[in-house]
Amino acid sequence: MRSERIRAVKSWRKGPRRYDTIFVNTDPSAHGMHGLDVARTRLFSFSYNGIKYPCALVDWFSCVDDVPNSNTGMWVVEPDILDDGTKFTSIIHLDSVVRATHLPVFGQDFISRTHTLSDTLDEFSSFYVNKYADHHLFEIAF
Hints:
- This protein is mainly beta.
- It has helices at residues 120-123, 135-140, and strands spanning 8-9, 18-19, 21-25, 36-48, 51-63, 75-79, 89-93, 97-101, 127-129.
- The strands form two sheets. Strands 3, 4, 5, 6, 7, 8 and 9 form a seven-stranded antiparallel β-sheet that branches.
- The longest helix has 6 residues, at 135-140.
């Protein structure tokens, strides 16, 4: 088993913000993406009156379809947006976090030179769940 660092920080190495994306186990009886949801981390555990609460504040993503994209074999997700235009956000227990995930964007248009990596999840409307990023993702995101 390996470990990885999942970040939710306002400034990464004195630079732009970094809020990583994760797989959350929402249905342990289902296999692959049918039992997982994708979320973006916003804040991790906090302490109150000397008690540490192992939780995360996350923004949710939902799968666009019930099957992966036929051309890429990757699932497509989009941010969950409420009627008032805000992102659907909730608090989850850290035990439900499976691992980090990678959400690339592909398309035919050029991206502005002023675009930064930290803006990607806010500026685009859909993302691929990249199961080809590493061996573990390939086994999980089917």
